[in-house]
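Hypothesis: this fold can be encoded by more than one sequence.
Test: take the structure tokens below, design a sequence, compare later.
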């Protein structure tokens, strides 16, 4: 088999790239170890930046998102007994975010690719990538019992945080940070507890009140990374949310919990994001802690840069933008690393936090909610810088 761009990974980065390249008339094949059902059902984050929303809509994959997603013009920061609204739209010059779950974006992208005759191979095994220094790299994999070899002009490693493609970049530098906590996430059949998201600082640790629909809510509380979800009954979970939100005057509306998971916290960047004819995109190259809701949006931004660069290459054989990929993508990656770290450190309770640290956090939250320029910094970064 032969294609122009071989893509390892059918997540947001891989599927969106395949879609964007198709619109330019560039062929691709996407392979993924997971089944289509598993990709379409795995619960991930749910906040789309303005630029992500615009891109999905403008390229014809935004119909369901526009219909079923919820546009949010503000978020609330809760601390020291009060709720403080950040007007995202006013502070960012008219931008907003949309609540629409990542797996719904994937459902839409898969449907569109298949509709457009795209070649997606799910459930592949034994994937190997070779010949990255040659003009003709190959992806070899087993699919439906047969060994396949795919010759490509370029390979894109969009295979997520469990990537194998990252390890094909020699002389890589990995930048890494661990956090001493995780998030306990739930999905519950319940009415919304708030019209807009609440990011809450509390003595018992952080809480995020998010939503999925008028009848399904997504909430998270800061927990120990070793937490076992089986130790947490619905009652115990709702009591914890209630205790953490009560000081801000918020009473979570409870209901049956149908999904419990623990999300690990890490900051990670791999440099460079390319080697020979391989380009890394999304979580294969970087991970952010979830507090800033940047993971999916960063994958979209990488792919936007890569799509442009590949477009120029196929039009004119000019490799300039491809060669600059790492440099271009990393600017936004490190900005998102800073923002996610900032939001995380401002809102979470660190186990070794002194009274000094707690008071410093409160001072920072007071700054962000009372100084228009500080609030503007939060709003601009939360809604996302324009895509280049
Ligand atoms: C959600 C996740 C986030 O990490 C975040 O910052 C906001 C919302 C969510 O899953 O809804």
């Amino acid at each position: 088999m032969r294609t122009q761009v071989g893509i390892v990974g059918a997540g947001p980065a891989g599927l969106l790239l395949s879609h964007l390249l198709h619109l330019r008339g560039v062929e691709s094949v996407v392979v993924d170890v997971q089944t289509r059902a598993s990709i379409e059902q795995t619960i991930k984050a749910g906040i789309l930046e303005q630029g992500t929303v615009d891109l999905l809509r403008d390229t014809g994959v935004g119909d369901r998102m526009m219909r079923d997603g919820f546009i949010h013009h503000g978020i609330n920061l809760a601390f020291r007994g009060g709720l403080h609204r950040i007007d995202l739209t006013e502070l960012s010059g008219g931008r907003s975010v949309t609540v629409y779950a990542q797996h719904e974006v994937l459902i839409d992208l898969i449907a569109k690719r298949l509709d457009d005759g795209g070649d997606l191979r799910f459930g592949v095994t034994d994937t190997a990538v070779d010949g990255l220094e040659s003009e003709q790299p190959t992806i070899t994999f087993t699919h439906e019992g047969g060994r396949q070899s795919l010759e490509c002009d370029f390979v894109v490693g969009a295979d997520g945080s469990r990537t194998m493609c990252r390890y094909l970049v020699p002389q890589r530098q990995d930048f890494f940070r661990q956090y001493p906590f995780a998030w306990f996430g739930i999905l519950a059949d319940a009415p919304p507890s708030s019209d807009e998201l609440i990011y809450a600082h509390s003595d018992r640790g952080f809480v995020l009140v998010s939503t999925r629909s008028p009848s399904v809510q997504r909430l998270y509380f800061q927990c120990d990374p070793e937490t076992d979800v089986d130790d947490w009954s619905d009652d115990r979970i709702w009591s914890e949310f209630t205790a953490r939100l009560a000081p801000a005057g918020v009473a979570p509306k409870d209901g049956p919990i149908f999904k419990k998971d623990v999300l690990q916290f890490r900051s990670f960047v791999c440099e460079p994001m390319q080697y020979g004819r391989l380009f890394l995109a999304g979580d294969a190259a970087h991970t952010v802690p979830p507090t800033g809701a940047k993971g999916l949006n960063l994958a979209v931004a990488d792919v936007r840069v890569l799509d442009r660069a590949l477009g120029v290459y196929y039009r004119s054989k000019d490799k300039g933008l491809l060669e600059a990929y790492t440099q271009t993508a990393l600017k936004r990656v490190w900005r998102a690393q800073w923002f996610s770290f900032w939001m995380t450190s401002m809102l979470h309770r660190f186990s070794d936090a002194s009274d000094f640290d707690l008071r410093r956090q409160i001072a920072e939250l007071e700054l962000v909610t009372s100084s228009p320029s500080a609030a503007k910094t939060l709003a601009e970064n939360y809604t996302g810088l324009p895509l280049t």
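The pocket of 3,4-dihydroxybenzoic acid is lined by residues 45-47, 197, 208, 210, 218, 290-291, 293 (CB under 6 Å). The radius of gyration is 21 Å.
Hypothesis status: open.
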